[in-house]
Design brief:
heterodimer; A: alpha+beta; OB fold (Dihydrolipoamide Acetyltransferase, E2P); six-stranded antiparallel beta sheet; B: alpha+beta; Gyrase A, domain 2; Elongation Factor Tu (Ef-tu), domain 3; six-stranded mixed beta sheet; 8 helices; 34% strand
Chain lengths: 126, 365
Protein backbone atom coordinates (compact mmCIF):
# COMPACT_ATOMS: atom_id res chain seq x y z
CA UNK A 1 0.00 0.00 0.00
CA UNK A 2 1.14 3.53 -0.75
CA UNK A 3 2.02 5.93 2.07
CA UNK A 4 -0.52 8.56 3.13
CA UNK A 5 -0.54 11.53 0.76
CA UNK A 6 -2.86 14.31 -0.39
CA UNK A 7 -1.54 15.89 -3.61
CA UNK A 8 -1.78 19.69 -3.69
CA UNK A 9 -2.94 19.78 -7.33
CA UNK A 10 -6.22 17.99 -6.49
CA UNK A 11 -9.48 19.30 -5.03
CA UNK A 12 -11.24 17.34 -2.29
CA UNK A 13 -14.80 16.61 -1.16
CA UNK A 14 -15.48 15.96 2.53
CA UNK A 15 -16.88 12.51 1.64
CA UNK A 16 -13.25 11.51 0.93
CA UNK A 17 -13.26 11.98 -2.84
CA UNK A 18 -10.84 13.89 -5.02
CA UNK A 19 -11.21 15.66 -8.38
CA UNK A 20 -8.42 16.39 -10.86
CA UNK A 21 -9.77 19.30 -12.90
CA UNK A 22 -8.48 20.09 -16.41
CA UNK A 23 -10.67 22.81 -17.95
CA UNK A 24 -14.22 21.50 -18.15
CA UNK A 25 -13.17 17.84 -17.79
CA UNK A 26 -12.32 16.16 -14.48
CA UNK A 27 -11.39 12.74 -13.19
CA UNK A 28 -12.67 11.58 -9.78
CA UNK A 29 -11.33 9.09 -7.29
CA UNK A 30 -11.19 8.38 -3.57
CA UNK A 31 -8.55 9.62 -1.15
CA UNK A 32 -5.79 7.74 0.59
CA UNK A 33 -7.81 8.04 3.80
CA UNK A 34 -10.87 6.47 2.13
CA UNK A 35 -9.03 3.44 0.80
CA UNK A 36 -7.26 2.97 4.13
CA UNK A 37 -10.58 3.02 6.00
CA UNK A 38 -12.15 0.59 3.53
CA UNK A 39 -9.29 -1.92 3.55
CA UNK A 40 -8.66 -4.33 0.69
CA UNK A 41 -10.86 -3.13 -2.18
CA UNK A 42 -12.21 -5.99 -4.26
CA UNK A 43 -15.06 -4.55 -6.35
CA UNK A 44 -15.87 -1.37 -8.24
CA UNK A 45 -19.26 -0.75 -9.79
CA UNK A 46 -19.23 2.47 -11.81
CA UNK A 47 -21.91 4.47 -13.63
CA UNK A 48 -22.82 4.17 -17.32
CA UNK A 49 -21.03 6.31 -19.89
CA UNK A 50 -23.37 9.17 -20.81
CA UNK A 51 -25.05 9.16 -17.41
CA UNK A 52 -25.39 12.50 -15.65
CA UNK A 53 -24.12 12.59 -12.09
CA UNK A 54 -24.79 15.27 -9.52
CA UNK A 55 -22.37 16.78 -7.04
CA UNK A 56 -22.86 15.22 -3.63
CA UNK A 57 -24.71 12.16 -4.95
CA UNK A 58 -23.46 8.61 -5.16
CA UNK A 59 -22.26 7.56 -8.63
CA UNK A 60 -20.92 4.10 -7.88
CA UNK A 61 -19.83 1.63 -5.25
CA UNK A 62 -16.52 0.43 -3.92
CA UNK A 63 -16.51 -2.76 -1.92
CA UNK A 64 -13.81 -4.01 0.34
CA UNK A 65 -13.73 -7.50 1.75
CA UNK A 66 -15.72 -6.23 4.72
CA UNK A 67 -17.96 -3.42 3.52
CA UNK A 68 -19.72 -1.56 0.73
CA UNK A 69 -19.27 2.18 0.32
CA UNK A 70 -21.04 4.62 -1.99
CA UNK A 71 -18.72 6.87 -3.96
CA UNK A 72 -19.80 10.50 -3.87
CA UNK A 73 -19.38 12.79 -6.88
CA UNK A 74 -17.40 15.87 -5.84
CA UNK A 75 -18.77 17.76 -8.89
CA UNK A 76 -21.64 17.28 -11.35
CA UNK A 77 -21.35 16.32 -14.98
CA UNK A 78 -21.76 13.77 -17.73
CA UNK A 79 -19.76 10.55 -17.54
CA UNK A 80 -17.27 10.34 -20.44
CA UNK A 81 -15.39 7.25 -19.32
CA UNK A 82 -15.28 4.65 -16.57
CA UNK A 83 -11.80 3.37 -15.68
CA UNK A 84 -11.98 -0.22 -16.88
CA UNK A 85 -8.60 -1.10 -15.39
CA UNK A 86 -10.04 -0.38 -11.91
CA UNK A 87 -13.16 -2.43 -12.73
CA UNK A 88 -10.82 -5.29 -13.64
CA UNK A 89 -8.32 -4.74 -10.79
CA UNK A 90 -10.02 -2.84 -7.96
CA UNK A 91 -6.98 -3.31 -5.69
CA UNK A 92 -5.36 -0.54 -7.78
CA UNK A 93 -7.29 1.91 -5.56
CA UNK A 94 -5.32 0.66 -2.52
CA UNK A 95 -2.01 0.64 -4.39
CA UNK A 96 -2.33 4.09 -5.95
CA UNK A 97 -5.48 6.00 -4.93
CA UNK A 98 -4.61 9.05 -7.05
CA UNK A 99 -3.56 7.12 -10.13
CA UNK A 100 -6.58 4.83 -9.99
CA UNK A 101 -9.21 7.31 -11.12
CA UNK A 102 -12.77 5.99 -11.22
CA UNK A 103 -14.60 8.18 -13.76
CA UNK A 104 -13.86 10.93 -16.24
CA UNK A 105 -16.60 13.57 -16.36
CA UNK A 106 -17.51 16.56 -18.54
CA UNK A 107 -18.37 19.14 -15.90
CA UNK A 108 -21.80 20.78 -15.93
CA UNK A 109 -20.52 23.84 -14.11
CA UNK A 110 -16.74 24.12 -13.60
CA UNK A 111 -17.39 26.90 -11.05
CA UNK A 112 -18.74 24.23 -8.66
CA UNK A 113 -15.07 23.47 -7.96
CA UNK A 114 -14.90 26.64 -5.82
CA UNK A 115 -16.90 24.74 -3.20
CA UNK A 116 -14.30 21.97 -2.87
CA UNK A 117 -11.47 21.80 -0.34
CA UNK A 118 -7.78 22.12 -1.01
CA UNK A 119 -5.38 19.49 0.31
CA UNK A 120 -4.67 21.36 3.57
CA UNK A 121 -8.35 21.95 4.34
CA UNK A 122 -9.17 18.32 3.61
CA UNK A 123 -6.34 17.04 5.80
CA UNK A 124 -7.54 19.28 8.62
CA UNK A 125 -10.87 17.49 8.37
CA UNK A 126 -9.62 13.92 8.70
CA UNK B 1 -17.11 5.53 6.77
CA UNK B 2 -18.02 6.37 10.32
CA UNK B 3 -15.21 6.08 12.84
CA UNK B 4 -16.05 3.52 15.47
CA UNK B 5 -15.88 4.30 19.16
CA UNK B 6 -13.09 1.84 19.71
CA UNK B 7 -11.48 3.76 22.56
CA UNK B 8 -14.54 3.56 24.78
CA UNK B 9 -13.62 2.25 28.23
CA UNK B 10 -16.75 0.06 28.10
CA UNK B 11 -15.06 -2.34 25.71
CA UNK B 12 -13.26 -5.31 27.21
CA UNK B 13 -9.61 -5.65 26.25
CA UNK B 14 -7.77 -8.92 25.83
CA UNK B 15 -4.37 -9.41 27.51
CA UNK B 16 -2.88 -8.86 24.02
CA UNK B 17 -4.44 -5.43 23.45
CA UNK B 18 -1.15 -3.58 23.81
CA UNK B 19 0.66 -6.04 21.54
CA UNK B 20 -2.00 -5.48 18.85
CA UNK B 21 -1.69 -1.72 19.12
CA UNK B 22 2.10 -1.89 18.83
CA UNK B 23 1.78 -4.15 15.79
CA UNK B 24 -0.35 -1.49 14.07
CA UNK B 25 -3.62 -3.39 14.19
CA UNK B 26 -6.88 -1.73 13.20
CA UNK B 27 -8.91 -2.23 16.38
CA UNK B 28 -12.70 -2.42 16.23
CA UNK B 29 -15.52 -3.13 18.69
CA UNK B 30 -16.74 -6.73 18.41
CA UNK B 31 -19.19 -8.44 20.78
CA UNK B 32 -18.25 -6.00 23.55
CA UNK B 33 -14.52 -6.39 22.99
CA UNK B 34 -11.84 -4.24 21.41
CA UNK B 35 -10.42 -6.64 18.83
CA UNK B 36 -8.00 -6.48 15.88
CA UNK B 37 -9.87 -6.41 12.55
CA UNK B 38 -6.63 -6.58 10.60
CA UNK B 39 -2.93 -5.74 10.76
CA UNK B 40 -1.49 -5.66 7.25
CA UNK B 41 -4.72 -6.36 5.38
CA UNK B 42 -7.42 -9.00 5.24
CA UNK B 43 -6.35 -10.57 1.96
CA UNK B 44 -2.67 -10.80 2.93
CA UNK B 45 -3.62 -12.39 6.26
CA UNK B 46 -6.05 -14.77 4.59
CA UNK B 47 -3.37 -15.85 2.12
CA UNK B 48 -0.86 -16.38 4.94
CA UNK B 49 -3.21 -18.84 6.64
CA UNK B 50 -3.89 -20.74 3.41
CA UNK B 51 -0.20 -20.98 2.49
CA UNK B 52 1.81 -20.85 5.76
CA UNK B 53 0.46 -19.95 9.19
CA UNK B 54 -1.59 -17.23 10.87
CA UNK B 55 -1.87 -16.35 14.55
CA UNK B 56 -5.20 -15.05 15.90
CA UNK B 57 -6.11 -13.60 19.27
CA UNK B 58 -9.47 -15.20 20.07
CA UNK B 59 -9.43 -14.32 23.75
CA UNK B 60 -12.92 -12.86 23.42
CA UNK B 61 -14.29 -16.42 23.26
CA UNK B 62 -16.00 -17.50 26.48
CA UNK B 63 -15.09 -20.47 28.65
CA UNK B 64 -17.60 -22.26 30.84
CA UNK B 65 -16.66 -25.03 33.27
CA UNK B 66 -19.00 -27.92 33.98
CA UNK B 67 -17.97 -30.18 36.85
CA UNK B 68 -19.48 -33.36 38.20
CA UNK B 69 -21.66 -36.14 36.85
CA UNK B 70 -24.95 -34.41 37.74
CA UNK B 71 -23.99 -31.15 36.02
CA UNK B 72 -22.79 -33.03 32.94
CA UNK B 73 -26.06 -35.00 32.80
CA UNK B 74 -28.03 -31.74 33.04
CA UNK B 75 -25.87 -30.25 30.29
CA UNK B 76 -26.49 -33.21 28.00
CA UNK B 77 -30.23 -32.49 28.04
CA UNK B 78 -29.58 -29.24 26.13
CA UNK B 79 -26.53 -30.20 24.01
CA UNK B 80 -27.01 -31.49 20.46
CA UNK B 81 -24.05 -33.86 20.37
CA UNK B 82 -23.66 -36.98 22.51
CA UNK B 83 -21.03 -36.40 25.23
CA UNK B 84 -20.59 -40.19 25.43
CA UNK B 85 -18.69 -39.84 22.14
CA UNK B 86 -15.89 -38.07 24.04
CA UNK B 87 -15.44 -40.29 27.11
CA UNK B 88 -11.67 -39.74 27.46
CA UNK B 89 -9.62 -36.82 28.69
CA UNK B 90 -8.02 -35.27 25.60
CA UNK B 91 -11.12 -35.53 23.40
CA UNK B 92 -13.22 -32.62 22.19
CA UNK B 93 -16.38 -32.23 20.12
CA UNK B 94 -18.35 -29.60 18.24
CA UNK B 95 -21.82 -29.23 19.71
CA UNK B 96 -24.76 -26.87 19.99
CA UNK B 97 -26.70 -25.53 22.94
CA UNK B 98 -30.37 -26.05 22.03
CA UNK B 99 -33.71 -24.65 23.12
CA UNK B 100 -36.82 -26.81 23.53
CA UNK B 101 -37.78 -26.26 19.87
CA UNK B 102 -34.39 -27.58 18.73
CA UNK B 103 -33.18 -24.05 17.89
CA UNK B 104 -29.50 -23.20 18.26
CA UNK B 105 -28.88 -20.92 21.26
CA UNK B 106 -25.13 -21.16 20.66
CA UNK B 107 -22.53 -23.41 19.08
CA UNK B 108 -19.47 -24.47 21.03
CA UNK B 109 -16.65 -26.93 21.49
CA UNK B 110 -16.73 -29.20 24.55
CA UNK B 111 -13.36 -30.36 25.92
CA UNK B 112 -13.18 -33.38 28.28
CA UNK B 113 -10.54 -31.93 30.63
CA UNK B 114 -11.15 -34.45 33.43
CA UNK B 115 -13.21 -37.64 33.56
CA UNK B 116 -15.99 -35.68 35.26
CA UNK B 117 -15.22 -32.16 34.02
CA UNK B 118 -15.83 -30.33 30.75
CA UNK B 119 -14.64 -27.00 29.48
CA UNK B 120 -17.02 -25.37 26.97
CA UNK B 121 -15.65 -22.74 24.58
CA UNK B 122 -18.55 -20.53 23.51
CA UNK B 123 -19.07 -17.47 21.32
CA UNK B 124 -18.10 -14.13 22.87
CA UNK B 125 -21.47 -12.59 22.07
CA UNK B 126 -23.31 -15.43 23.85
CA UNK B 127 -21.15 -15.87 26.91
CA UNK B 128 -23.52 -14.24 29.40
CA UNK B 129 -26.57 -15.74 27.68
CA UNK B 130 -25.12 -19.25 27.87
CA UNK B 131 -24.07 -18.81 31.48
CA UNK B 132 -27.65 -17.75 32.30
CA UNK B 133 -29.15 -20.69 30.40
CA UNK B 134 -26.75 -23.03 32.21
CA UNK B 135 -27.21 -21.42 35.62
CA UNK B 136 -26.41 -24.01 38.27
CA UNK B 137 -24.76 -26.26 35.66
CA UNK B 138 -21.82 -24.24 34.37
CA UNK B 139 -19.49 -21.66 35.84
CA UNK B 140 -18.21 -18.77 33.71
CA UNK B 141 -14.40 -18.98 33.96
CA UNK B 142 -13.69 -16.81 30.89
CA UNK B 143 -11.80 -14.11 32.77
CA UNK B 144 -9.05 -16.56 33.65
CA UNK B 145 -8.38 -17.60 30.06
CA UNK B 146 -6.88 -16.13 26.94
CA UNK B 147 -7.04 -18.03 23.68
CA UNK B 148 -4.91 -18.04 20.53
CA UNK B 149 -5.45 -19.86 17.26
CA UNK B 150 -2.44 -20.89 15.16
CA UNK B 151 -3.79 -22.00 11.78
CA UNK B 152 -2.36 -23.01 8.44
CA UNK B 153 -0.37 -25.78 6.76
CA UNK B 154 2.83 -24.79 8.65
CA UNK B 155 1.10 -24.15 12.00
CA UNK B 156 1.83 -27.47 13.70
CA UNK B 157 5.42 -27.54 12.42
CA UNK B 158 5.98 -24.11 13.94
CA UNK B 159 4.46 -25.22 17.23
CA UNK B 160 6.52 -28.40 17.36
CA UNK B 161 9.75 -26.54 16.61
CA UNK B 162 9.21 -23.64 19.02
CA UNK B 163 7.74 -25.63 21.88
CA UNK B 164 7.90 -29.19 23.17
CA UNK B 165 4.35 -29.77 21.92
CA UNK B 166 4.02 -31.91 18.81
CA UNK B 167 0.39 -32.56 17.89
CA UNK B 168 1.08 -33.33 14.22
CA UNK B 169 0.00 -36.92 14.86
CA UNK B 170 -3.27 -35.98 16.55
CA UNK B 171 -6.57 -36.24 14.73
CA UNK B 172 -8.84 -33.17 14.70
CA UNK B 173 -10.74 -32.44 17.92
CA UNK B 174 -8.13 -33.79 20.31
CA UNK B 175 -6.01 -31.89 22.80
CA UNK B 176 -3.03 -32.17 25.07
CA UNK B 177 -2.18 -30.15 28.17
CA UNK B 178 1.46 -29.10 28.26
CA UNK B 179 3.82 -26.44 29.61
CA UNK B 180 4.53 -23.81 26.93
CA UNK B 181 6.26 -20.45 27.45
CA UNK B 182 5.99 -20.69 31.29
CA UNK B 183 2.26 -21.54 31.24
CA UNK B 184 0.27 -24.73 31.24
CA UNK B 185 -1.57 -24.58 27.94
CA UNK B 186 -4.37 -26.65 26.40
CA UNK B 187 -3.36 -27.30 22.80
CA UNK B 188 -6.31 -28.53 20.74
CA UNK B 189 -6.38 -29.62 17.10
CA UNK B 190 -9.37 -27.42 16.37
CA UNK B 191 -9.93 -24.24 14.39
CA UNK B 192 -12.21 -22.11 12.27
CA UNK B 193 -10.31 -21.82 9.00
CA UNK B 194 -10.39 -25.22 7.27
CA UNK B 195 -6.63 -25.51 7.73
CA UNK B 196 -4.56 -27.77 9.93
CA UNK B 197 -3.59 -26.05 13.11
CA UNK B 198 -4.47 -25.64 16.73
CA UNK B 199 -6.23 -23.49 19.26
CA UNK B 200 -4.33 -22.71 22.45
CA UNK B 201 -6.12 -22.05 25.73
CA UNK B 202 -3.66 -20.22 27.95
CA UNK B 203 -4.07 -18.66 31.41
CA UNK B 204 -4.63 -14.92 30.85
CA UNK B 205 -1.27 -13.96 32.40
CA UNK B 206 0.61 -16.21 29.98
CA UNK B 207 -0.97 -14.86 26.80
CA UNK B 208 1.65 -12.24 25.91
CA UNK B 209 4.57 -14.66 26.30
CA UNK B 210 2.88 -17.26 24.13
CA UNK B 211 1.86 -14.71 21.49
CA UNK B 212 5.39 -13.28 21.25
CA UNK B 213 6.95 -16.73 21.02
CA UNK B 214 4.74 -17.75 18.09
CA UNK B 215 4.47 -14.37 16.33
CA UNK B 216 8.27 -14.06 16.14
CA UNK B 217 8.52 -16.99 13.72
CA UNK B 218 8.92 -15.83 10.10
CA UNK B 219 6.32 -18.35 8.93
CA UNK B 220 3.67 -16.80 11.19
CA UNK B 221 1.52 -13.77 10.29
CA UNK B 222 -0.64 -12.07 12.92
CA UNK B 223 -4.25 -12.15 11.72
CA UNK B 224 -7.40 -10.28 12.70
CA UNK B 225 -11.10 -11.00 12.78
CA UNK B 226 -11.48 -9.89 9.14
CA UNK B 227 -9.53 -12.82 7.75
CA UNK B 228 -11.00 -15.13 10.38
CA UNK B 229 -14.39 -14.38 8.80
CA UNK B 230 -13.31 -14.83 5.16
CA UNK B 231 -11.48 -18.06 6.06
CA UNK B 232 -14.42 -19.59 7.90
CA UNK B 233 -16.75 -18.64 5.04
CA UNK B 234 -14.52 -20.34 2.45
CA UNK B 235 -14.58 -23.38 4.74
CA UNK B 236 -18.42 -23.10 5.07
CA UNK B 237 -18.37 -22.88 8.86
CA UNK B 238 -21.49 -21.04 10.06
CA UNK B 239 -21.23 -18.06 12.40
CA UNK B 240 -23.72 -17.99 15.25
CA UNK B 241 -25.76 -14.80 15.21
CA UNK B 242 -25.41 -14.57 11.41
CA UNK B 243 -26.01 -17.99 9.87
CA UNK B 244 -27.47 -19.88 12.79
CA UNK B 245 -29.50 -18.79 15.79
CA UNK B 246 -32.33 -19.66 18.17
CA UNK B 247 -34.85 -19.87 15.30
CA UNK B 248 -32.66 -22.19 13.18
CA UNK B 249 -32.10 -25.90 13.74
CA UNK B 250 -28.98 -28.07 13.28
CA UNK B 251 -30.64 -30.31 10.67
CA UNK B 252 -31.47 -27.49 8.27
CA UNK B 253 -28.11 -25.88 9.00
CA UNK B 254 -26.25 -28.96 7.74
CA UNK B 255 -24.92 -29.64 11.23
CA UNK B 256 -26.66 -33.00 11.71
CA UNK B 257 -23.21 -34.59 12.19
CA UNK B 258 -23.14 -32.83 15.57
CA UNK B 259 -26.75 -33.66 16.49
CA UNK B 260 -26.77 -37.27 17.61
CA UNK B 261 -29.84 -39.24 16.66
CA UNK B 262 -30.15 -40.97 20.00
CA UNK B 263 -28.74 -39.08 22.94
CA UNK B 264 -29.07 -41.00 26.20
CA UNK B 265 -30.44 -38.50 28.70
CA UNK B 266 -31.68 -36.19 25.95
CA UNK B 267 -34.53 -33.73 26.50
CA UNK B 268 -37.28 -31.89 24.65
CA UNK B 269 -34.66 -30.43 22.27
CA UNK B 270 -33.82 -33.91 21.03
CA UNK B 271 -37.54 -34.72 20.61
CA UNK B 272 -37.88 -31.57 18.51
CA UNK B 273 -34.89 -32.54 16.35
CA UNK B 274 -36.39 -36.01 15.74
CA UNK B 275 -39.56 -34.33 14.44
CA UNK B 276 -37.52 -32.04 12.16
CA UNK B 277 -35.54 -35.02 10.84
CA UNK B 278 -38.74 -36.96 10.15
CA UNK B 279 -40.57 -34.11 8.43
CA UNK B 280 -37.44 -32.70 6.73
CA UNK B 281 -36.33 -29.13 7.36
CA UNK B 282 -38.36 -26.41 5.63
CA UNK B 283 -35.23 -24.41 4.76
CA UNK B 284 -31.57 -25.35 4.44
CA UNK B 285 -28.34 -23.40 4.85
CA UNK B 286 -26.42 -23.78 1.59
CA UNK B 287 -23.18 -22.45 0.12
CA UNK B 288 -23.84 -20.12 -2.82
CA UNK B 289 -21.23 -19.01 -5.33
CA UNK B 290 -21.73 -16.01 -7.54
CA UNK B 291 -21.13 -16.76 -11.21
CA UNK B 292 -21.56 -13.13 -12.31
CA UNK B 293 -20.00 -10.00 -10.81
CA UNK B 294 -20.91 -8.81 -7.36
CA UNK B 295 -20.50 -9.60 -3.70
CA UNK B 296 -23.43 -10.94 -1.70
CA UNK B 297 -23.89 -9.63 1.83
CA UNK B 298 -26.10 -10.58 4.79
CA UNK B 299 -29.68 -9.71 3.84
CA UNK B 300 -29.27 -10.21 0.09
CA UNK B 301 -32.43 -11.85 -1.32
CA UNK B 302 -32.06 -15.19 -3.13
CA UNK B 303 -34.40 -15.85 -6.06
CA UNK B 304 -35.35 -18.63 -8.44
CA UNK B 305 -36.88 -16.90 -11.43
CA UNK B 306 -38.84 -14.06 -9.86
CA UNK B 307 -39.69 -15.90 -6.66
CA UNK B 308 -37.80 -15.03 -3.49
CA UNK B 309 -36.77 -18.36 -1.98
CA UNK B 310 -34.20 -17.37 0.60
CA UNK B 311 -31.80 -14.90 2.17
CA UNK B 312 -28.03 -14.61 2.42
CA UNK B 313 -26.81 -14.65 6.02
CA UNK B 314 -23.06 -14.19 5.36
CA UNK B 315 -21.24 -13.16 2.21
CA UNK B 316 -17.87 -11.92 1.06
CA UNK B 317 -15.44 -11.92 -1.81
CA UNK B 318 -13.43 -15.14 -1.56
CA UNK B 319 -9.76 -14.13 -1.54
CA UNK B 320 -8.78 -17.55 -2.95
CA UNK B 321 -11.50 -17.90 -5.62
CA UNK B 322 -11.72 -14.15 -6.28
CA UNK B 323 -15.51 -14.39 -6.59
CA UNK B 324 -18.49 -13.70 -4.38
CA UNK B 325 -19.42 -16.48 -1.98
CA UNK B 326 -22.17 -16.72 0.60
CA UNK B 327 -24.08 -18.86 3.02
CA UNK B 328 -27.84 -18.57 2.47
CA UNK B 329 -30.98 -20.08 3.93
CA UNK B 330 -33.14 -21.26 1.02
CA UNK B 331 -36.37 -23.24 0.75
CA UNK B 332 -35.45 -26.94 0.92
CA UNK B 333 -36.71 -27.72 -2.60
CA UNK B 334 -34.10 -25.31 -4.03
CA UNK B 335 -31.18 -26.51 -1.90
CA UNK B 336 -29.65 -29.14 -4.21
CA UNK B 337 -26.05 -28.57 -5.35
CA UNK B 338 -26.01 -26.99 -8.79
CA UNK B 339 -29.40 -25.25 -8.46
CA UNK B 340 -29.33 -22.02 -10.46
CA UNK B 341 -30.23 -18.97 -8.43
CA UNK B 342 -30.11 -15.24 -8.75
CA UNK B 343 -29.22 -12.71 -6.09
CA UNK B 344 -30.68 -9.23 -5.73
CA UNK B 345 -27.53 -7.27 -4.84
CA UNK B 346 -28.78 -3.76 -4.05
CA UNK B 347 -31.17 -3.79 -7.00
CA UNK B 348 -28.99 -5.66 -9.51
CA UNK B 349 -29.72 -9.29 -10.44
CA UNK B 350 -26.59 -11.44 -10.30
CA UNK B 351 -26.37 -15.12 -11.33
CA UNK B 352 -25.36 -17.66 -8.70
CA UNK B 353 -25.51 -21.40 -7.98
CA UNK B 354 -25.78 -23.66 -4.97
CA UNK B 355 -22.17 -24.78 -4.50
CA UNK B 356 -20.55 -27.77 -2.89
CA UNK B 357 -19.13 -27.53 0.64
CA UNK B 358 -16.51 -26.27 1.24
CA UNK B 359 -15.77 -23.47 -1.21
CA UNK B 360 -12.06 -23.96 -0.53
CA UNK B 361 -10.55 -27.20 0.76
CA UNK B 362 -7.65 -26.30 3.04
CA UNK B 363 -4.89 -28.51 4.41
CA UNK B 364 -7.41 -30.10 6.79
CA UNK B 365 -8.80 -31.93 3.74
Amino acid sequence: MADASYPAELRYHEAHDWARIEGDVATFGVTWHAQDALGDIVYYAGPEVGQTIKAGDGYGELESVKAVSDIIAPLGGEVLEVNQSVVDSPEAVNDDPYGAWLVKVKLTDPAEADGLLDADAYQALI
Amino acid sequence: MAESAVDTPLLRRTPLDEAHEQAGAKLVPFAGWRMPLQYEGIIAEHTAVRTSAGLFDVSHMGQLRVQGADAIAALQRVLSNDLARIPDVGQAQYSMLLNDAGGIEDDLIAYRIEADELLLVVNASNREHDAALLDGIAEDVSDGWAMLALQGPAALDVLAELTAVDVRGERPFHFVTAPVAHSVVIVATTGYTGERGCELLVPADGAVGLWNLLADDVRVTPCGLGSRDTLRLEACYPLHGNDIGPDRDPIGAGLAFAASRDVPGGGPAHEALRAIRDAGPRQKLVPVSVTGRGIPRAGTTVLVGDAAIGTVTSGTMSPVLRQGIALAWVDAEHAATGTELSLDIRGTRVDATVAQRPFVRGSLG
